[in-house]
């Protein structure tokens, strides 16, 4: 039997039993769509979380600190030593000072971080509103959302406001027998213009260009971002810096742990979707079995006029594979539309409650291709038994069947 004849006979289901065929394909589509919806939700949540906490440069960066004991100090000599390591591509120090900042008549306490523009890129810090500090920014600032609320501003409304700073500069307390830290209050004459807000509702702080406090000659760094040349040398650089007595952590460690957690979540969501897919596969198997029972006389006639057992087997397999393939295409359509509708509804609610709009669904192209192949395989598997049974029918018994 020609391939064209097998295809013609296998597609008769769309004309002889259109409603049953449509419902069978729809059942597979719903199962596939459920899997796509849940797995794409898992991927979307992963992307939302990771994009919030990282950038490409941040994955190659180490976070270096002197620890809390106070026995080790990170100063310019430490910075030069680390910057001189052969596998270090870039460094970005952070000066941390307790301070008071004022907007209008309101004054609040918080932390002031003197940073270079590269800090935001290396730390993976992205603004919720506005932008971060640039190379040409002089007296500009980026504050936390908690600091904005401290001055009764919505985070998106504080952009452009002027803030005054009074820094508490630690003093050398060698003559202080009590050992208590002394501070010198230093008021900055120049006001800073707020150009960005980062999401942090717990701590009030402000980022300012480190060069604007260079006149203080304060080089006691609280943190240091170190970017390595490649991920293959990260562990070596980490060991060298640790050998200096400094504490070293890496955002990539957190990212790896987060990815493992999200992989587990995606598997769990996929298992829930598989329940619907198994139910639809059973429905498809039932349809193929009923089709076999209806065509027993027809199979007897085809065998008697020369069709081989393999022709009968191929006819049933092509029919089931075709339904599986169409179920996969329909499943992608259903899963995509369901995701877009759900994402739209969630974002509408988020806007009404003052939140941000997010894309909670992500569908990797390879996963869409996998779904098509997987649904086609399911169609093939569900058609194996009916096709084998049909091919083994005795032509005479099939002709006598009523």
Can you walk through the features of this model?
The chain has helices at 3-10, 13-16, 18-53, 76-83, 118-123, 145-150, 234-242, 251-294, 296-304, 309-352, 365-391, 395-400, and strands at 61-65, 88-103, 106-115, 129-130, 140-144, 162-171, 182-187, 192-198, 205-209, 223-228, 247-250. Helix 3 (18-53) runs antiparallel to helix 8 (251-294), helix 3 packs across helix 10 and helix 8 runs parallel beside helix 11. It starts with a helix and ends with a helix. Strands 2-3-9-5-8-6 form a 6-stranded mixed barrel. The chain is built from 12 helices and 11 strands. The protein is of the alpha+beta class and 402 residues long. Strand 2 (88-103) and strand 3 (106-115) form a beta hairpin. It is elongated and about 105 Å long. It has 2 domains: 3-54 and 257-400, no CATH class; 93-221, no CATH class. The protein is 51% helix and 19% strand.
Query: Which blocks of ≥5 consecutive residues have pLDDT under 50?
Result: none
Query: What is the arithmetic mean of pLDDT?
Result: 83
CA-based shape = elongated
Given the structure, what is the number of helices?
12
Helix share bin: 40-55%
**Sequence of secondary-structure elements:** HHHEHEEHEEHEEEEEHEHHHHH
Alpha-beta classification: alpha+beta
Q: How much strand content do the residues show?
A: 15-25%
Largest sheet: 6 strands, mixed, barrel
Radius of gyration (CA) equals: 33 Å
Number of strands: 11
Strand order of the largest sheet: 2-3-9-5-8-6
Q: How far apart are the termini?
A: 26 Å
Number of domains: 2
């Amino acid at each position: 039997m020609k391939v064209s004849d097998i295809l013609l006979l296998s597609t008769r289901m769309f004309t002889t039993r259109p409603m049953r065929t449509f419902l069978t394909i729809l059942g597979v589509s719903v199962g596939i769509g459920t899997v796509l919806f849940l797995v794409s939700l898992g991927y979307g949540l992963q992307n939302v979380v990771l994009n919030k906490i990282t950038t490409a440069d941040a994955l190659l960066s180490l976070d270096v600190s002197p620890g809390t004991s106070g026995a080790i100090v990170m100063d310019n000599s430490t910075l030069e030593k680390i910057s001189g390591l052969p596998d270090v591509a870039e460094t970005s120090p952070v000066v941390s000072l307790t301070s008071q900042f004022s907007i209008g008549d309101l004054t609040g306490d918080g932390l002031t971080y003197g940073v270079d523009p590269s800090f935001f890129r290396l730390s993976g810090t992205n603004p919720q509103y506005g932008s971060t500090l640039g190379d040409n920014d002089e007296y500009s600032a980026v504050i936390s959302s908690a600091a904005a609320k401290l001055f009764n501003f919505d985070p998106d409304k504080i952009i452009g406001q002027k803030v005054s700073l009074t820094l508490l500069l630690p003093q050398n307390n060698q003559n202080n027998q009590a050992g208590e830290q002394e501070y010198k209050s230093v008021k900055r004459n120049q006001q800073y213009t707020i150009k960005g807000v980062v999401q942090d509702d717990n701590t009030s702080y402000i980022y300012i260009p480190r060069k604007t406090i260079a006149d203080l000659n304060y080089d006691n760094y609280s943190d240091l971002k170190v970017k390595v040349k490649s991920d293959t040398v990260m562990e070596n650089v980490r060991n060298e810096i640790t050998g200096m007595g400094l504490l070293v952590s890496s955002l990539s460690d957190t990212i790896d742990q987060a990815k493992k957690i999200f992989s587990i979540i995606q598997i769990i969501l996929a298992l829930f979707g598989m329940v619907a897919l198994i139910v639809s596969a059973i429905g498809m198997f039932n349809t193929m079995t009923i089709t076999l029972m209806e065509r027993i006389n027809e199979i007897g006639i085809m065998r008697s006029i020369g069709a081989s057992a393999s022709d009968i087997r191929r006819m049933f397999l092509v029919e089931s594979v075709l339904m599986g393939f169409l179920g996969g295409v329909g499943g992608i359509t259903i899963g995509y539309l369901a995701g877009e509708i759900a994402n739209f509804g969630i974002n509408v609610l988020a806007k009404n409650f003052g939140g941000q709009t997010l894309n909670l669904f992500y569908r990797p192209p390879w996963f869409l291709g996998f779904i098509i192949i997987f649904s086609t395989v399911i169609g093939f598997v569900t058609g194996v038994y009916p096709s084998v049974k049909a091919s083994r029918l005795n032509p005479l018994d099939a002709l006598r069947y009523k």
